[in-house]
Every structure is written in C-alpha cells, then in structure tokens.
Amino acid sequence: MTVEQGLAKSPTLHSVPPFFNYVIKRQRRKSLALHVLVDGSVEVRAPKWLSRTVIISFVEGRVDWVVQQRSERLLKLQSLPVYRDGQSHYFMGQRYRLTLSRGTAAAGLNAGLLQVTARDPDNPQQVQKSLEKWYRQQAIAVYDERMFACFESFPDWFQDRYPMPPITVRKMRRRWGSCSSSGQVTLNLSLIKMPQECLDYVIVHELCHLHVFHHGAAFYQLLGAVMPSWKEREALVERLA
User: Fold this and answer.
1) Are 156 and 101 contained in the same domain?
2) Count of alpha carbons within 13 Å of 123, Cβ hemisphere only?
3) Does residue 48 sit in the same domain as residue 26?
4) Which structural domain, as residue segments, surrounds residue 116?
5) What dihedral do alpha carbons 39, 197, 185, 189 form, nearest 10°?
6) Predicted model pTM
7) Are residues 151 and 224 in the same domain?
C-alpha cells in the first residue's frame, strides 16, 4: 500500500473550516472509496493503477459532503466523556454522575453514583484508566450473560448445529462487533454503556454470521426471524453512537 497527501476546499460550506487535508491510500482494490474517520481525518482508498487526476476529481465532486461529515465528527469529539468530578458517564443506558476520590484504582456504582478512585483524581488519564478497568470487568460478565440469553433465542436447529461462541472484549473504533470465520465473536467495550437492547442486537447480529457470513437476503431473513425489532435496535445503536 502506498500513501499520498491531498488538499481540498469546499466552495459552498462556510460554517466549519472549508479546507481539509486527505490521505490517498492506494490498495489492491477495484473501486474508489471516500471515508471520514471518527477523528475527522479523511481517507481516499483507491486502486493502485488509478491516476491522481481521477482521484482528485472524485474528491472534489464530494467536497461538501466531506466537510459536513467532518463537522459532525468534530462536534461529536467535543462531546466525548470528561473525566472530572460531577461529569456524567453511562452504564447500560443509564447516566450516572462521576464522584472522584483518592486511593487505589477502582470504580463502582453506589447510591446512584459512579464512584471512581485513583492515585491522583485530578489526573484525567488515571481516572479514565480506573473507569475503563471497571467497564471491562462489567462487560465480561454482562456480555457472557447476554450471549447465553441471545443464543437461547435462536431456533433448535441453529443451537444444535453451532456451539455458543466465546467472546472477546475489545476497544474498537469502527465496529460494534465482529464474528470470525472460526466462530470467535468480538464485542466493542463501549457497548457496556448502551441499553441492553443495543447490546442484544449486536450479539444476535454476530451470531447470525455463524450461519451466514455475508449480509445477503439469507442473513436478514435469519436476523428478522430471531429479532423482529432489529431495525429499530440498529437505529438506536446508530443514534447513540
């Protein structure tokens, strides 16, 4: 893969900085793709053989869309959690106020508050580390419990054919979950902050991939049979993301 740089400007949008840099990543692929990442950076993924002129023209034809997407991404970055006393953080769809104290790194819910201790509670990185350790501990337990419940919702023929898969918990930037060809399910740590219906949707979605590895008609037929409300749940995940 080779990487190049580019610069583009929006002729019409002025509510955000209209200039943006973008990276051209030449890969073994057949088509052009334009991506605005969660941090607001822009990537163009292009075939190795495609001329730079064609790539620039492709980007310039979509500049206003890119600027709008960057505006939304950067606005979302501003709303990321703040690790200070009194700030709000979520667990299983409920919002809790953070209370900080000095001590051995730990966290937990008490009287409707999310209490976190850190060696230096004025250090956001230490507070974040304590909180994320607790989130991971909760995720391991909750995800296992919901995996069992979701697996049980599948028809008998499915449960007879496929074993309940093990779960790996990871921080992921672009996916809520994944299912490998060997049947290993990986779930995003951040799902522990969402309501249970969101977590269940992602688990059922990945379980469906045990039987249908693509997103074709057969996949959605199985998903709809197991979870008729999947569209509403998917929309909720996207809204809360």
Assistant:
1) no
2) 11
3) yes
4) 88-135
5) 40
6) 0.68
7) yes
Q: In a 10 Å sphere around its CB, with 0-12 CB exposed, 13-18 middle and 19+ buried, how is residue 172 labelled? A: middle
Residue with tokens 């994320």: 132
Asked whether 77 and 39 are in contact (CB, 8 A), the reply is yes
Give the pLDDT confidence of 47-83 residue by residue, as tens digits. Answer: 999 999 999 999 989 888 888 888 887 777 665 678 8
Q: Is residue 224 part of a domain?
A: yes
Largest CA distance in the chain: 62
Q: Is the pLDDT of residue 17 over 70?
A: no
- In this structure, is residue 37 part of a structural domain? yes
Whether residue 159 is contained in a domain is answered as: yes
Q: What are phi and psi of 170, to 5 degrees?
A: -140, 155
pLDDT in tens, 216-239: 999 999 999 999 999 999 999 998
Same domain, 115 and 24: no
- Nearby residues of 122 by Cβ (< 8 Å), 6 or more positions away: none
Query: Looking at the structure, do residues 127 and 159 belong to the same domain, yes or no?
Result: no
User: Tokens 């937990």 sit at which residue?
Assistant: 108
